[in-house]
């Protein structure tokens, strides 16, 4: 597997055609796309091309508008509040993906409306040159482990899971629980070469053609676990508080009931 | 960045010297290690070399012994109970890393006692050939997203975080919150080429030499977030239940107090 950052991508502006910009950068770089290549595209440039910019004085309002459900909140050491929320894409993360870095002064950027659709449009266009897959990536923190990794929030023409169901290990036992999220791993590999500061928002992954398939493969939306299936659908403090309130009411009612007997 | 699975690794047995086995496989493959290479080594072969095998009829006991703290439990659809626990390494995951796949019949494998130390020993030995870094990887599920990705549970001679503190984005604003966990991203990249079934437990990453440094760089233990700093230190159901019990007692006491007035 080879992974490199595509050099020469210009600053992306609302209305830009990403396929054209990528195709021009690839041509200038001199390494044509080949069948089986996977492009990892930072969601930020997808958002910019799609004009998902709002004024920065609306940042908190923008976060609220993108939020479907508050998962956890905590006061930051330096002031302000960290809001871990589920956004309208189902993705759980800080600030609903509302991004204030590398944007024009006084503006923030929202996530693409439908990153799987964005990936599909881009992949369809680039498939005029070669049968490529497209991942739209974003940077997310995670519970239990410090720091962030890049994950897939959009995907087209590439398998998001390496399905090992029904396969067996080398001792012949079924590998029932292993379902590697290769889309997230591809996004992570892309981040290693793109970096956050280099101004290279596109990585090209070559050598993983076994994961590339039809454009209508399930997208990254299928990675999102439904809250009712999630053991961590709510922050520990938030769940504790909700339980306490319920318990308090029940305890008071129980005491009254006992006293009446 | 190039990433490939090292072919020709034999089945690892207790007492084997991993550095010798890797060096022999590299020599047979014909691509010598060079300065800046990073080896991503599946924890399973580290455990095997270190003899971390216990009898399978002790599996539940082994999980309990490796568990420091139960984070969440849930009944599985197919029967049995999924236990998400923090193990003695601080890592939160299912079954405390106790592994029953690809092990000899009737046995399970525990995680290495100290994966950072294992990585350091291996890197020190391999540095006789070239200045390499070593990541010890394991496969973990995660909240909110289906499937698993490989992460770093041990590291030596390689930076685990790409520290962007104090750096600025292209508009000159400080990148205060971005701290990519490159060790986890390297483990993910390695998993893409190793696969779970191919019998290739070692991946070599070339081209990320900027992350390689002294052997005494902080290890993967520093990735683990302390529970008291973690908004998801306890499952939602578990936290709710604890809150309910506290609330119930408080509600009952409050009712009694009010009635006495």
UniProtKB/TrEMBL annotation, chains A, B:
Supply the EC number(s): 6.3.2.31, 6.3.2.34
Chain coiled-coil ranges: none
UniProt-listed Gene3D superfamilies: CofE-like
Q: Which GO terms describe its molecular function?
A: coenzyme F420-0:L-glutamate ligase activity; coenzyme F420-1:gamma-L-glutamate ligase activity; GTP binding; metal ion binding
- Keywords, sorted A to Z: GTP-binding, Ligase, Magnesium, Manganese, Metal-binding, Nucleotide-binding, Potassium
- Presence of keyword 4Fe-4S: no
Protein known as:
Coenzyme F420-0:L-glutamate ligase/coenzyme F420-1:gamma-L-glutamate ligase
Species assigned in the record: Microbacterium pseudoresistens
Q: Which lineage ranks, top first, belong to the organism behind this chain?
A: Bacteria, Bacillati, Actinomycetota, Actinomycetes, Micrococcales
């Amino acid at each position: 597997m080879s992974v490199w950052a595509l050099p020469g991508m210009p600053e992306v502006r609302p209305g830009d055609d990403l396929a054209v910009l990528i195709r021009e950068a690839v041509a200038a770089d001199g390494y044509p796309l080949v069948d089986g290549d996977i492009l990892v595209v930072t969601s930020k440039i997808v958002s910019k091309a799609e004009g998902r910019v709002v004024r920065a004085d609306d940042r908190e309002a923008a976060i609220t508008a993108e939020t479907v459900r508050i998962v956890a909140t905590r006061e930051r050491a330096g002031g302000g509040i960290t809001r871990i929320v589920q956004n309208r894409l189902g993705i759980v993360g800080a600030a609903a993906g509302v991004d204030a870095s590398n944007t024009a002064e006084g503006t923030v950027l929202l996530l693409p409306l439908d990153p799987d659709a964005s990936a599909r449009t881009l992949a369809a266009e680039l498939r005029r040159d070669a049968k490529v897959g497209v991942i739209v990536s974003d940077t997310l923190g995670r519970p239990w482990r410090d720091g962030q990794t890049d994950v897939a929030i959009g995907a087209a023409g590439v398998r998001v899971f390496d399905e090992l169901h029904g396969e067996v290990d080398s001792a012949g036992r079924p590998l029932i629980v292993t379902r590697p999220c290769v889309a997230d791993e591809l996004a992570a590999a892309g981040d290693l070469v793109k970096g956050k500061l280099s101004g290279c928002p596109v990585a090209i992954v070559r050598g993983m053609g076994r994961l590339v398939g039809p454009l209508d493969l399930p997208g990254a939306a299928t990675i999102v676990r439904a809250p009712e299936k999630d053991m961590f659908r709510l922050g520990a403090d938030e769940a504790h508080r909700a339980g306490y309130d319920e318990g308090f009411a029940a305890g008071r009612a129980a005491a009254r009931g006992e006293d009446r007997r």
